[in-house]
Each structure stands twice: as structure tokens, then as C-alpha cells.
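Sample entry (89 residues):
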Amino acid sequence: MKGYLEELKRRKVVRVCIAYIVGSWLLLQIADTTFEPLNLPDWSTTLVLWLLILGFPVALFLAWALEVTPEGIRRTPKRKKPAQTSNPK
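Predicted structure, serialized as C-alpha cells:
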């Protein structure tokens, strides 16, 4: 379990999760404030909420699989396992 949590941190999935939740909350606040004066249907805010909910696992998957580097977006390299040493007896 510890290795899994370390891998989540290494791949920056936790950072993406927090940023997505904060960004989603902000977007919902903006939608709630602006949709009524724009005379959009009542279900518009619900639609935004569902789109954000559906996008959450996609964002987490992309955070796991990809990394942003100065050279561009590329697949996250797999963690190298430490070399096993043989103990001769």
C-alpha cells in the first residue's frame, strides 16, 4: 500500500486530484452565479456538474499515464525496481 501511495505522488495524481476539485468548485460557483442572469435553463448547472463528475476519472487516468515535461507531454516512465542483490553463502 505504501508503494502505491508513493507512486500516486510520483505521478502527481494527488496534485491533479486537488486541482481538479478546486477548479470544479470554482467553475460551479461561476456557473451558479452567471447562468441565471444569462437566462440559461435551470438544468444548465446540473449539466456542468455531471460533466465535471464524468471528467474526474478521465483527469486522474491522464495524470497517471502522462507527464508534462519541458519537451512536451509524454508517457510517465515506469518506476524502476531496485536491483536485487544476491547474498552468496
